[in-house]
Design brief:
single chain; mainly alpha; about 0% strand
């Protein structure tokens, strides 16, 4: 074959391939699935709806929005049973692959326990923490807000919130005291 025929044949094959691809795409109707947020003030029904929505992989990306919507609905009916609803949601979501098991544990701990495990570095009793202090304190403050929402507003657990707030204040004191001691050690 000469060069002209090879070029013509390549162009013809490329045109056929592009036409086939474009024709194939046009024949496939695109079905859009809307992910709807829970409505109303019935806590159990809202959790059921969210699980149904998250059952479709196309809605997994909405997990944070679903969690926020459920927090807001649960705030309208605070009680200890909400803790079980959220625990079940996190566990189910991890089992379904919506979030990881470590994310499920982190979210539960962040909102519904008085301990601060998600914001702290592995070691906060050494001078290396000083360089990251602003970030650590900011994370602790954010986690404290999440605990206030979860413990006090969603569960109605004032004592749990006061315990979490006390732990927060103690951690901040320890971190700031450590940073000051390290600074003095560097100067002296």
């Amino acid at each position: 074959m000469n060069i002209v025929k090879k070029r013509y044949l390549r162009r013809a094959l490329a045109t056929v391939a592009v036409t086939a691809v474009l024709s194939g795409c046009n024949n496939q109707p695109v079905k859009e699935v809307a992910c709807s947020m829970p409505q109303g003030n019935k806590v159990s029904a809202a959790f059921d709806q969210v699980k149904s929505e998250l059952g479709r992989s196309s809605c997994h990306y909405e997990f944070d929005n679903y969690e926020s919507a459920l927090m807001e609905i649960a705030r309208g009916a605070p009680g200890k049973e909400n803790q079980k609803h959220f625990f079940d949601l996190y566990t189910w979501s991890a089992d379904q692959g919506v979030i990881t098991k470590s994310q499920a544990k982190e979210r539960y701990t962040r909102h519904f326990t008085s301990s601060y495990g998600t914001s702290l570095p592995d070691s906060y009793s050494n001078c290396a923490t000083g360089r990251r202090m602003d970030g650590i304190l900011s994370s602790l403050k954010s986690e404290a807000k999440a605990k206030q929402q979860g413990l006090q507003k969603v569960l109605g657990d004032r004592n749990g919130w006061f315990d979490a707030k006390n732990r927060h204040d103690n951690l901040v004191f320890i971190l700031e005291t450590t940073a000051l001691a390290c600074e003095e050690q560097r100067r002296g």
